[in-house]
Amino acid sequence: MRRLTDRAQAPPTHGGDKERALLSSHSIELKIQSELKSAMYNPEVPGKRFITYEKLCAVWANTSIDSIESFRSFFLEELQLVRRNYMRVLSILIYIGWDLARFRPVFLRCDLDDDKLCFDSDQLHELGELAPNFNDVQYIFKPVQIDSRPEIQSVSTKLRLPFTSMNEMSGTDGPGVVSRRVIAAGQFIESIGGKSTRTNKDPMVVACKQFEADFRWAPRARETRAYSIIRERSRAHEGILTHFATLAHGNDFIIVFPFAQHYSLEVFFKEGDEKRPTNLNQGGSPQVRERYHFTKKFPLLANSSILHLTMLSQACKLVDALLFLQKELQVPGWGDSYCVHENLEPPEILIDGNPSDPMTPAGTWKLTDFGLSMYEKGTDTRNIRHLLLEELSQGVFVLDEVFISNLSHNSGYLSPEQGSRRGIHEWPRSYHRERDDSLDWRKTDSWSVGCLLCELLAFSLSRRRGVDILRRARRDDFGIGFYETYGDSNQPMSQIYRANIRIKQSVLSWLHESAKAKPTYVSVVDQILRPYPEDRPNMRRIRSLLGALESGKVTASKTRRPTDIR
Predict the structure, then answer these.
(1) Within a 10 A sphere around the Cβ of 126, how many other Cβ atoms?
(2) pTM above threshold 0.90
């Protein structure tokens, strides 16, 4: 190696000059130490504190490594190697105040560079009493890079997630908690075809849905791969918002999504207000925060006729997305199968786009894919090789090919064949078929569309007040569903017949009253919202009905009255 003899051509130091050089070197280390602390994200939260490589390089931008006394004897090639491969390690050592005089034998000659972080206790024994300090601090200097590869990214709890900020937790009416977070620059890796392509140059705003997970049952690669295929192919449709990545971090399972700037349809229904989760066991009550001022966010919807047409237009686009899932989404090797959303409800419909654009006065609505499932045509049985993403997070057990899960729909959109009398999600739901054919599980999405159309109508008639009126009409001792079962109240509802299930009388009353204002719309809803699965239209028929309604080609027909039993 060539010594750095011509680096500065400085005269030899003697006496006071050497002392001044040592003092200068010490002050440089103190300066670096201080700037590293200042550059850290979440400095007040010990378990979440971290510094990115980009920030670390900025700290060193105007400081030469050989300005530190311990490195003045290094060869030029050694200095270049340290700058290229050891900046994290060097920064950690300065941060904990270790004597850098032994950097060459302990780290450089042993190849303990940045790529090998984080080190174990055997690798750190040469640090003596400062080894525990290094062990604790090293995780701050190498935060996780979130990777968009298909696999679930398993992350040690010791490692720091790269979120620079986390908004107040915002509740959803389904499982898990959603929050707005920011990924630090350089900490998100975009992968295409399983290969890393680039990292984010700027901070990246995302939405994270977090579950408390149970990983006693670990999802096999086959299940996660199947879900990733569905994710990648769903990206072909503009009405579906697929997730970026999935993380298993200790007991937390996190789904990372693009951030929808106008939040969810549930917030829309509440005119910008959002429920926030609280600990009800400690006597708390649901809190509400204003996400936006509705008339300022959606100024063009002040016109009631525009509001109604927009609701209908967005409903058509959501049905188009569901049709894509059911008709066009296929997984290689699964034979002839179809995809069902199974979780269609307002919190899972996100709103993006520009509400000031006359073409999108309510923004652009997109389905999120928390609940996608595949079923085999012919048998209509759920493919055991594929699990819901939420189920992967919560520990789903497979017993005799029957899925047992603690998923629940709290918006009241759960179909009769999915839910029990008390709204518990038991899978699969047994029911009596009057013909010898299989249950088409796509009809569960048809039911959810019917529920959604009711709430869209309620909003278009009286906005938030209208939705609240409908939800009060649906509420009873068993929840806020649209249907009810009846018969012997002492017996559990283990089977569904036409004769023991019906639309709630209060909902029929609401529809009958709403028909005075929107008779053709209610006529279409009446054809879709049928509690018995075989009586419901498929998604293609629903799209045809909505298209005819949108073009004014639907004639109002007599709708069911509150006395009707179906």
Answers:
(1) 13
(2) no
Tell me: pLDDT of 412 over 90: no
Residue 542, amino acid: I
Cis peptide upstream of residue 428 (ω within 30 degrees of 0):
yes
Tokens 């699965």 sit on residue = 533
Q: Where are the domains of the chain?
A: 16-137, 146-228+239-258, 432-566
| Residue whose tokens read 């023991």 | 500
Whether residue 327 has pLDDT greater than 60: yes
DSSP track, 433-455: -SSSS---THHHHHHHHHHHHHH
Q: Compute φ and ψ for 189, nearest 5 degrees.
A: -105, 120
Write the CA distances from 381 to 336, 414, 424, integer angstroms. Answer: 12, 19, 21
How far apart are the C-alpha atoms of 387 and 395, rounded to whole Å? Answer: 10
pLDDT in tens, 123-166: 999 999 999 999 999 999 999 999 988 778 889 999 999 999 87
Considering the segment(s) 146-228+239-258 as one domain, its CATH architecture is: 2-Layer Sandwich (3.30)
Q: What is the DSSP letter of 554?
A: P
Distance CA 435, CA 429 (A): 17
User: What's the pLDDT score for residue 333?
Assistant: 62
Contact between 548 and 321 under an 8 Å Cβ cutoff? The reply is no
Compute the average pLDDT of residues 207-216. 68
Give the rounded distance of the alpha carbon of 188 from its chain centre. 15
User: What token pair was written down for 18?
Assistant: 């050497």
For residue 38, pLDDT over 80 is answered with: yes
Cβ contact 181:167 at 8 Å:
yes
